[in-house]
User: Fold this.
Amino acid sequence: MHRREPLGGAEFAPETTYLNSASSGLLPRRSADALRAALTESASYGTMGRDYFAAATASRAAFARLLDVPAERVAIGSSVAVQSAFVAASLPAGAEVLVPEGDFSSLVNPLAVHPGIKLRTAPLEALADEVRPGTALVAFSAVQSLDGRIADLTAVREAARAHGARTYLDITQAAGWLPLRAADFDFVAAGAFKWLLCPRGATFMVFGGDQGRETEWPAALHGSWVAGEDIAESNYGPIEPAATARRFDEPHAHYSYIGAEQSLGLLAELGVETVHAHNTALADHYRAGLAERGLTPRPAPGSAIVSTPGIADAEQRLAAAGVHVAVRGGLLRAAFHLYNSTDDVDRLLSLLG
Assistant:
């Protein structure tokens, strides 16, 4: 293959061979520098800084541009689990929710434990076929955390529309490297600390479909002071919710969004299409090397995540050599991102023997 050098230049200089972005991404240098400056500022101006909203507002706008959606459709929060609980609470009693078998717990569990929801599971590959009359919501990840399988987004979306079901898409393992159309789905959640390279605690939710009309917004269940139309008048007593998706904001972790603004800016400069081509080329090079060793990686080419059965016991040996991967469900999982190179792949393969 054409040899690939890392993207991002001086933004990254890891002391390890880091192939674990599906667990947590690396912070760019500019994000780390901004966080250090914010910490210094906090010594004189408090932990909300001199302007609590500036970085969050800029991060919302940067995420919206990256996903090609209006910023007015984006809410900011703290975790996908909280967003899932919000979606669950927006459903009517007795609602049937369809999810893939084995999808990530932060997406599925808040739906499973919500009183009155009837949760049904199906294999990911059969998800579109399993949508039926009476299905209220289809909730699924664009890319599976366990093994990197990519959902057929178009098929699921069209099946849901045909049966009057809403869609809830988790793009935590996709945003930042996989081109996708977030506006096509009713709810889209993204934990930003993986492929989006943000500090943990930055999370975004897109409200797509017909939502945004005054009569179509779900109830603003969080109802915090930051969600008021006039924030200056929203500190005491009942508030008037903002006219935009900001009505669903949680009071945000200030430092998380200080870093998020910078990380999302870097990804915008590089472009998701460029990152996608880079990541998948490295992953395919790794797949080819595994096949030469008689191993059967999954999923098929096209994913930046490669999970392989039969070699999970190599994880500790790799870590000792400074190569960071993960083991999930008995699979050795490697994840390739913009700061990785062909040399990183070749080193991993050589250590696997």
